[in-house]
Amino acid sequence: MKLEISEILYEHNKWLVDVEEGKLADLSGADLNWADLSGANLSGANLSGANLRDAN
């Protein structure tokens, strides 16, 4: 089952606070075209090969 981007970002934010909690975001190869990423902290996230065209 694929996780929704909001759930992935929620888990990633928990991971940023405490690596024992949450989960590092793996968005490799994801199509994030036009995704609203405003306010998201993607530090350390795997974005290799992700399409971020027109994302904000």
From TrEMBL:
Gene3D superfamilies: E3 ubiquitin-protein ligase SopA (2.160.20.80). SUPFAM superfamilies: Pentapeptide repeat-like. InterPro entries: 5peptide_repeat. Pfam families: Pentapeptide. This is Pentapeptide repeat-containing protein. It comes from marine sediment metagenome. The lineage of its organism: unclassified sequences, metagenomes, ecological metagenomes.
